[in-house]
Amino acid sequence: MSWKTQLFKLNYDLEEEKAALEVISSGWLTMGEKTVQFEKNFSKFLGNEINCIAVSSGTASMHIALMALNLKKNDEVIIPALTFVSDANTVYLSGGKPVLADSASLDNWNVSLDSIKKKITKNTKAIIVVHFAGYPCSEIEEITKFCEKNNIFLLEDVAHAPGATINNQCCGTFGDFGSFSFFSNKNLSVGEGGMVSSKDPKLIEKAKFLRSHGMTSLTFDRHKGRTNSYDVAKIGLNYRIDEIRSAIGIVQLKKLKKGNSKRKLLTKKYIENFSNTEIKIPFTNQPKNSESAFHILPILLPQGSNREEIMNELKSRGIQSSIHYPPFWGFTAYKKLFNQREYPISAQICSRELTLPLYPTMELKKVDEVSSSLINILS
Ligand SMILES: *Cc1c(COP(=O)(O)O)cnc(C)c1O
To answer: 326 FRET partner, CA 20 to 30 A, in 36, 163, 200, 221?
Structure first.
């Protein structure tokens, strides 16, 4: 299907092509100088005292962060009910039990300290906060303090929010770990990729081992003649990133701020177009000190709307739309494990949410076209 208006388009040009070609000519394909540079640049972007390690996906980064916590049987990890399934998957695969916290409200879709507190037990070992759609969790500072006080690890899923800030502090630097994704449709795209961030050098050291089989030295070090052999101190996986994607990541990181600003401009236009309609855009009451990364444009359809039909109507006009997210607790693998009544706000959002096109190279007049099409369909 060729769309007139895609949900997302890559913000790529000759610079990304050049970066990829350079790696191919260099003769070194994985975990070399480009990866080191990408990590350095990303650390600087987040704030210099933050350590970063680049990995093969956002899921890999969350899995590594969780594995570094050494979860034991019966350990619980609180995650938002409104998130991508990978958060639940990685908690399970690291031996923990995911417990779901509700969204704060129909406007603030992120979790709140209050919704988290309802799920705390003596087995709570960690909390994952998602900065949904790019909007910083408005209570992240309170949640950070709460976790410190109660000896609970705090992980941030920053897949939607690279560059988002609260009081000029970047999302992904509040908790013990930040987990970024550079999947194709994210604000910083390399195809498949991710980044683990942490202030704590000990945790980052653990994460480094887990990324590469637990090995104490890397192929690149041996190539450079720095060591001849290696030991395996801790059991790990292969979650490495290759040089082509790191090189593209370096270019994409340079474009991120400008891309996020453009997303903001487009979001403002959507808000303006839908004011005085039944279509609600969330996160309109975010605190003044917070800045979003405007990853997607989520809307809340009027109660009782037929979302499937609306998406098909948009499709017939060449407009691509999506859902963030189909509730993972309804998926076959999870069906029996959760009780929907415990997170009524997230459940309602999942059933009424619709995501509209948003990407940095989108034109303002496209926003107008999409908006008027949707208003027209709803009437
Ligand atoms: C994309 C995404 C992930 C997973 O990232 P991948 O790079 O696709 O593995 C995790 N959480 C959220 C909220 C995401 O949007």
So the answer is: 163
Q: Which of 264, 294, 57 is closest to 164 using CA atoms? A: 294
What is the tens place of the pLDDT at every residue in 7-57? Answer: 999 999 999 999 999 999 999 999 999 999 999 999 999 998 999 999 999
Please identify, by atom number, the ligand 1 atom nearest to the C-alpha of residue 62: 10
C-alpha distances in angstroms, 3 versus 256, 313, 314, 358, 371?
Answer: 25, 13, 10, 14, 16
277 Cα: distance to centroid of ligand 1 (angstroms): 32
For the residues of 240-263, what is the DSSP string, one character each? Answer: --BHHHHHHHHHHHHHHHHHHHHH
pLDDT at 98: 97
Amino acid at 148: E
What does the pLDDT look like over 180-211, one tens digit per residue? Answer: 999 999 999 999 999 999 999 999 999 999 99
Nearest CA to ligand 1 atom 15: 159
User: Rounded to an integer, what distance in angstroms lies between the CA atom of residue 229 and that of residue 192?
Assistant: 30
Å from CA of 144 to ligand 1 middle? 22
